[in-house]
């Protein structure tokens, strides 16, 4: 049997002090954090671009500063990080919004003239958030307007894709 000291020398090399290992450990932690934040940044665009995340709020959460709180909570902004001029939250069950894709009423989308939008056959309760102050996110302040209107959405084979607007 080998003496204990001989066994240690065979298994590996010991660091002379913690100072020798510390820079490598710090570098490894920094790389790990960088990869973690990079992954979250990539996933943020996918999650935040869904119709459900951007426009659905059912049941409506009753808050005194509804628009300001919801827009901050869901990180709703323009691609260049400026405040959105207007944003709409629909207060209806996802199943009811999904059924709009089966609506026989098809109209030209307001912003996308070559694409058809599906218009709901019934009016939905919504909150329109109109920008009243601020230009750069998150320093945006909104006015709240509860409305009932028909919604216009684009659809794919699997369901609603984008909210395009509303018609009173």
Characteristics:
5 helices; 2 domains; P-30 Protein; alpha+beta; six-stranded antiparallel β-sheet; about 170 residues; single chain
Number of domains: 2
CATH architecture of the largest domain: Roll
Mean of residue pLDDT values: 82
Percent of residues in β-strands: 25-35%
Description:
There is one protein chain. With 168 residues, this protein is α+β, with helices and mostly antiparallel strands. It has helices at 4-11, 18-48, 51-55, 66-73, 94-98; strands at residues 86-90, 106-108, 116-119, 124-133, 141-156, 159-167. Strands 1, 2, 3, 4, 5 and 6 form a six-stranded antiparallel β-sheet that branches. The model is unreliable at 40-48 (pLDDT under 50).
Short description:
By secondary structure, the chain is an alpha+beta fold.
Question: Secondary structure elements and their pairing?
Answer:
Blueprint (H helix, E strand, L loop, with lengths): L3 H8 L6 H31 L2 H5 L10 H8 L12 E5 L3 H5 L7 E3 L7 E4 L4 E10 L7 E16 L2 E9 L1
Antiparallel strand pairs: 1-4, 2-3, 3-5, 4-5, 5-6
